[in-house]
Amino acid sequence: MKISQCTAFVAIADTGSFTLAAKALSISQSAVSHAISSLEKNLGVSLMKRSRSGVEFTEIGQRVLEHARTVVHGAEQIRQEAEALRSHRSGTLRIGTSQSFAASLLPRLLTEFCASWPDIGIELHEGTDQEIAEWLGGYTIDVGVVALPKENLSTVPLLQDEMYAVLPPEHALAGRRALGMEELADESFVMPVSGVETMLRTVFRVIGREPRIAYRAHDVNSLLSMVAEGLGITVVPALALPSVLPHPQLRVIPFAPSLTRRLGIGVRTAARCTPAAEAFVATARSLARDGVWSRSSERGRGADAGGRAAPQNPWRQGDPGSVPAGPGAGVRTAPSRSSACPAMASAS
Region Disordered: which residues (predicted)? Predict the structure, then answer.
């Protein structure tokens, strides 16, 4: 068995086809086919079935894939360790992020990181909070921005993101300056497909209710358009709100008491970080600790119910003391587990 065979196998899983895998690896499709054929011959099992509709993994193929990812991840670690020793920082860093974080705060983080690692290749994987956690667990990505807390991951808290109710202008509550969650208990929701739903269900259960979900939407602009049409109301984090609302008549109203989600950066618990991942985590911690994101993320949020500009800086840094100014502080690690990433574990 060769690392190149595992690499081809993982590339097929990630791209969904031999053709796209060959393109991603910059090799011929015949080379990919030969690698898989040799791997199956060495193992004595069939790993996948090819058809006009794509590639379908066998049951044993799905189990082998997890181990193949581990092999590819280990090979990348070895290569980066050698590159770091030669003071030539290169390689690939795979980052999992939500669409809202990628659009708002990730550019500044990448600017800071790439200033020290100019030759590193960046792969962005956009997904939901649950998908990012699963990708971390399966070695699909090296680091990910996740909602906290997260079991089985080593995490560093970065920021708090305030939640806002978004209502159509004709709604009976549209004139309110602030809302309590119990006032929305009988409303129909257009729910963002993200970790917001889990958070809202938890809050509703405190008052003995469940949210009434009429629709779900991935894209925030589609979600806001549905609210504008009166199909329901929604709750979204400040980070996901566009700087200019697609429908200016919408009412963006905070909660009282305020409702926030905590965001952090995570790696797989007990996984050995690559040098690039360690540097990325350290850069994120530095920006959060220095409040750079809080300053750079100030922007208008449209008008609230009273015609005033909605809060320009709904972000708050992590809980008091959660991202202290000392080196290595603010680490949140799953109980009874340790991280092999020095940037995550330096406080322990």
Answer: 291-348
Q: Position 317: which residue type?
A: Q
CATH code, 1-88: 1.10.10.10
Determine the Cα–Cα distance for residues 45 and 67; give it in Å rounded to an integer.
15
Question: Domain-by-domain residue ranges, the chain?
Answer: 1-88, 95-348
Phi, psi (rounded to 5 degrees) for 142: -95, -40
Backbone angles phi, psi at 171, to 5 degrees: -65, 145
DSSP helix/strand/coil, 86 = coil
CATH placement of domain 95-348: 3.40.190.290
Distance of CA 296 to CAs 105, 107, 237, Å?
8, 11, 17
- pTM for the model: 0.64
Rg, the chain, Cα only: 23
Q: Terminus-to-terminus CA distance in the chain, angstroms?
A: 38
